[in-house]
């Protein structure tokens, strides 16, 4: 059997993988703080006995689009956005430190400060716990203050400070949980230059039009690869008939 069918098969499978990346980006177009994934094709020569005369296709995720999304003022005291570069430190499921730009926060009945996905937000000494209060106020430096129950509006008590960090992009890796993790496993140091925009959230940076175009291109490339597979199958059938006649 000619190797053409295997080459076409890799092209089809890798286009499906690229399609999955584009579909995931598009499905998160309205996810707060989401950063889209890049997708790129690469030619991979097949090495073995003789010369590498065949080339397979391979889809890679060469990086993440870290461009900030659009900001939207909500007026909600529990909404925060990073003004410029930086990240909000949270606790991942495995207990390690991870980072996000999603600042649509919530407080549980037990006083835990969580992201919308349920990750605890980290402060100076670990996950932040908020005492019973009349209202919550975030400062631009990440300071979390509350108005204690029964107190006047101008009475504020500082509770904790959100852990804000600014590691280099090369030191981060995006996990399957959607969070960004330190590449070397070592948590980044707090950075006082990171500023918050209280009462604001950062939208996804996904370009819906661009992702739709990518999905159309991937579908057309997939159809071409499948057609090449059919052509290889037809060539094999014709060659088999010729051999039988001889």
Task: Put the structure in a nutshell.
The chain has 246 residues and is of the alpha+beta class.
Describe the structure.
The relative contact order is 0.21. This protein is 25% helix and 27% strand. It folds into two domains: 4-65 and 206-245, no CATH class; 71-202, no CATH class. It is α+β, with helices and mostly antiparallel strands and 246 residues long.
Unreliable stretches covering 5 or more consecutive residues? none
The largest sheet is: 3 strands, antiparallel
Radius of gyration: 25 Å
Helix and strand sequence: HEEEEEEEEEEEEEEEEEEH
- Report the structural category: alpha+beta
Write down how many β-strands occur, each being a DSSP E stretch of 2 or more residues: 18
Query: From the structure provided, what is the oligomeric state, counting identical versus distinct chains?
Result: single chain
Number of domains: 2
Distance between the termini: 18 Å
Question: What keywords describe this structure?
Answer:
3-stranded antiparallel β-sheet; 246 residues; 18 strands; 2 helices
SSE map:
Layout: H1 4-27, E1 40-45, E2 55-60, E3 71-73, E4 80-82, E5 87-91, E6 97-100, E7 106-107, E8 113-114, E9 122-123, E10 126-127, E11 133-138, E12 143-148, E13 157-161, E14 164-165, E15 172-174, E16 180-182, E17 196-198, E18 200-202, H2 208-245
Antiparallel strand pairs: 1-2, 3-18, 4-17, 5-6, 5-14, 7-8, 9-10, 11-12, 12-13, 15-16
Helix pairs in contact: 1-2
């Amino acid at each position: 059997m000619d190797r053409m069918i295997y080459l076409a098969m890799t092209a089809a499978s890798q286009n499906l993988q690229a399609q999955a990346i584009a579909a995931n980006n598009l499905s998160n177009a309205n996810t707060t703080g989401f950063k889209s994934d890049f997708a790129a094709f690469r030619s991979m020569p097949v090495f073995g006995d003789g010369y590498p005369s065949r080339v397979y296709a391979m889809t890679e995720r060469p990086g993440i689009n870290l461009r900030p999304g659009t900001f939207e003022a909500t007026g909600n005291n529990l909404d925060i956005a990073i003004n410029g570069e930086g990240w909000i430190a949270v606790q991942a499921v495995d207990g390690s430190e991870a980072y996000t730009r999603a600042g649509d926060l919530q407080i549980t009945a037990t006083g835990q400060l969580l992201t919308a996905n349920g990750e605890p937000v980290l402060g100076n000494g670990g996950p932040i716990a908020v005492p019973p209060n009349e209202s919550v106020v975030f400062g631009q430096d990440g300071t979390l203050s509350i108005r204690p129950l029964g107190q006047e509006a101008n009475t504020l008590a500082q509770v904790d400070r959100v852990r804000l960090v600014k590691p280099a992009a090369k030191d981060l890796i995006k996990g399957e949980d959607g969070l960004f993790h330190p590449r070397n496993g070592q948590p980044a140091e707090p950075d006082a230059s990171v500023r918050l925009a209280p009462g604001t959230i950062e939208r996804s940076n996904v370009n819906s039009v661009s992702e739709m175009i990518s999905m159309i291109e991937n579908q057309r490339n997939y159809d071409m690869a499948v057609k090449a597979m059919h052509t290889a199958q037809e060539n094999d059938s014709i060659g088999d008939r010729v051999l039988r006649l001889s």
